[in-house]
Each structure stands twice: as structure tokens, then as C-alpha cells.
Amino acid sequence: MRAEFTRIRTLPATWIALAVTLAANTLLGLLAATDTVRVATSDGQVAVSQLGTVMLAPVYAFLAVPVFAAGRELRISLLATPDRNRFLLAKLLASAGTTIVAAPVLLLPGLLVRHAAGSLPAEMTAYLLLGLVGGGFAVLTRTAVIPLAVLLALPVLVSPMLAGLLPGLVRLLPHEATLSFLGTSTGPALSRTAGFWVLLAWAVVFVGAAWVATVRRDS
Amino acid sequence: MIEISRLSKRYGAKTAVDDVSFSVRPGRVTGFLGPNGAGKSTTLRVLLGLDHPTSGTALIDGRRYRDLRHPLRTVGALLDGAGPVPERRAIDHLTWIAQSNRIPRRRVREVLDLVGLGDAAGQRVKKYSLGMGQRLGIAAALLGDPEILVLDEPVNGLDPDGIRWVRTFLREFAAGGRTVLLSSHLMTEMAETADEAVVIANGRIVARGSIEELTAGHASLETAFFALTEG
Ligand SMILES: Nc1ncnc2c1ncn2[C@@H]1O[C@H](COP(=O)(O)OP(=O)(O)OP(=O)(O)O)[C@@H](O)[C@H]1O
Ligand SMILES: [Mg+2]
Predict the structure, then answer these.
(1) Is the pLDDT score of A48 beyond 60?
(2) Does the keyword Glycoprotein belong to this entry (chain A) (predicted)?
(3) In a 3-state reduction of DSSP, which class is residue A45?
């Protein structure tokens, strides 16, 4: 556990991802608060504050990369902790711990400029669960790039395209569920509670699949 | 004591290791010899709990590696495809490994000095030369002051000085009653480092014994090796 934190803390990529996320959140928060930028969509103009999609995107980069996609270091980790259950438990706890420590720092500036500090607990929960989805995905594919690409492509490309055709399906995607949960969805939405459960289910599915894969397969 | 018995490993249709049995005793340096693709790394990965055996067992002091609670204090290992993220500093790399197995922090300094990286401890690993990277891997293997060392091609990329350093170090390590298993495809190097050798070709053990026994009747270990692995 402590070793896992040291591992994360001493990786430059962690700090870069943190800085980028912080900057993006603050910037988006500022834009939303001042409502200076409006983005044209088919329905006319939408304030950036409603483009929650973009807002959540950096989360994946921040959580999935440093914790789970360790590359060459994966084998070192497994040599040090050969029991696969202990290995994954340490990773999960470390990622949760990192989120709990880092999320307030990342989120507060953005929330404060939007005068929405009250939604911090909900946003932290969303970060935690999304991080688990990304992390589980990273374990499965053993890279950071594929999960990042897929998880970014889903909200940015796929859901806008499918939103009109299959609204029932799109709102179940991890991203859309998160937005529903946070009450910031712009497209077809679930109730906040349903959004939470759907997001939780995604996290459970990805972590579960990662768990099975890690116990079974070779490294 | 390392005991490998009737170990097989298949990857799909490819049999990488085929019914391999041998044991490695303390107090000696045992070489694991074979040409490229013979199955050396695969055997060592199974021994260290990274890959699952298709059948058979590989035990360390009677236990599976995966069942060791703080394995680095019993077995030190150097494997290919395992190392630090290049952006990391050497000292941070060793520190998290030490923490994971409750190894006192002062050991990090000790092993860095031992392998001659004391002055480069704070550098990022990507700035290291091939030889320095290999020394760092050996330092990581020594962190837990283990009784057993398992090294996959430890002299790969080392210059003559580095090779001599590894050789002297391993010989002293074994002379103290500890166990060393190292793989190599470099016969001449092995003839001078190891007391015994296990020779593997195409996934099967083709010979084992002391270096003298293996070389008997041949001009050198190298010619013995070609005779054994091409037969
Ligand atoms: N993960 C894998 N999937 C499929 N085949 C594999 C895998 N790992 C090894 N092999 C195959 O098993 C055989 C043995 O490989 P191994 O790496 O154990 O050889 P080696 O003796 O270490 O060779 P070298 O001296 O080149 O390191 C090779 O033919 C290799 O292609
Ligand atoms: Mg090999």
C-alpha cells in the first residue's frame, strides 16, 4: 500500500496529469462562470457549463494512467507482491486514496468559480468511480493509451452521434451516467439516483473483469 | 534450494517448456544454458510466479513463489521485460520496492553503493547506460538480502569490467552458502562463472552436471554446447 503510494508519487506523469486536470477544471469552471464562450450546436448555443462531457474527460488521464498501467514495472510489482488478490487490493486502495486526497484540490477551484462548492462530495464520488472504470480498463488492455482513447472517444464522438438514434442506450454509457448522476447532463438523462447506480455498475464490471484477468492470466 | 519438477508451459500450440526437471543447490553458481528461444526465460517466469505452469511445479524451499508473503527477502530476481518506468529516479524505484516487502530504507543506499551506482542514485533511469540499468536491476534483486538469486541474462549489455564484477560478485555470494541460478546463452562467460550447468534446447533439458562433466570429451564448453543442442 505505502509502496504503491510512493510508486505513484514519484512518477512524473502523475504530477503532469494532476496539473493538466487542475488547469482544465479551473479553466472550464471560469468559462462556465463567466459564460463568455458559447458553443454552437444543432439546437443553437449552449453554454460551456453544460458541456459537462469535456469537464469530466481529464479524470481518466489522471487516475487510470499512473495507478494501473505500469508497463515494465508491472512485473516488478508482481515479483514484489505475487499474490494477485493482495496486488489488486493494494492498487484499488491506492487509487481510491489518491482520489480522495487529490480530488478536492482538483475540483475546488473549478467549483468555487462556479459557486457550486456544495456538489464536491458528488463530484468526488464520480471521480472515484470513473477512475475505477478507467483503471479496470487499463488492467484489461495493459496499456494506458487504449482506455484513454476509448473513454475519451465515447463521450466526444460516439454519444453525440448516437444520442439522436438511441437515446435509451447512450444514457447508460459511463460518461452519460456520470453526468446524469451529477445532474449536469445535456442529452438524454437518467435520474440522479439511476445515474449513480449505472456508474457504480460500470465500475464493478470493469474492476471485476480486471480482477478475473489478473488472477488467471500470465504476465 | 530450487526444485523444478516435470514443468511444462504451452502458449497456445507452442510448447515453450517441455517436461523440465532440475534442482539448484545452495553454495554453488548454477548456469541455465540454452540458445535463443530455448525456454530459459519462460522457466524462470514460471518459477517466479509470473506465468502459470501448464503442468508440473516449480518450488523455492518447498513453497510456490506466489505463496511467499515477502518474497523479495527470500528470492532476488532480475528478469527481462521488468524494470522501472524510465522517468523514475533510481532511488525512488528501489524505495517503493523496499517498502512493498518491508525492507528497511537504509538498504536502498547500501545496494546502490554495492553495485556502484551511489553517485547516480538521483538520476532518472532513462539517462542510464545499458550497463547502469543492468546494475540497477541487480541492486533491486539484492534489496531484500535474499538467500537465493535468480538472474535472467544478467551480463547482457555489460562491458568486460561489468561482466567481471558480476562474476566475482556471484561467486562470493554462492561461496557464502547462498543459491544462484543464472541464465545465459554465452558459453564462454558461463564456463568461468558457474560451477554447474543445466542445458536446455527446444524446451527440453538435454544435459546437466558440473562444468567439468559437461565439457569432458570436448575442446570447450562451447563445443560441448553445440554438440548437445544441435544433436
Ligand atoms: N508469452 C508468450 N507467448 C507465446 N510464445 C511465447 C511466449 N513467451 C515465450 N514464447 C515462446 O517460447 C519459446 C521460449 O522462449 P523463452 O523466452 O523462454 O526463450 P529463452 O531461452 O529465454 O530465449 P532467449 O535466449 O532469446 O532469451 C520461444 O519460442 C518463444 O517464442
Ligand atoms: Mg530469455
Answers:
(1) no
(2) no
(3) strand
Per-residue model confidence (pLDDT) at position A107: 65
Domain boundaries, chain B: 2-61+147-229, 85-146
Instruction: List CB contacts of A201: < 8 A, sequence separation 6 or more.
Output: none
Pairwise CB contact (< 8 Å): A218 & B50:
yes
Contact A75 B84 (CB under 8 A): no
* pTM, entire model: 0.81
According to CATH, what is the number of the domain B2-61+147-229? Answer: 3.40.50.300
H-run or E-run covering A177:
helix A174-182
| Of B10, B15, B33, B40, best ligand 1 pocket probe by most atoms within 8 Å of the beta carbon | B40
**Which of A76, A83, A86 to probe by mutation at the B interface, max B CB count within 10 Å?**
A76
Cell of A19: 496539473
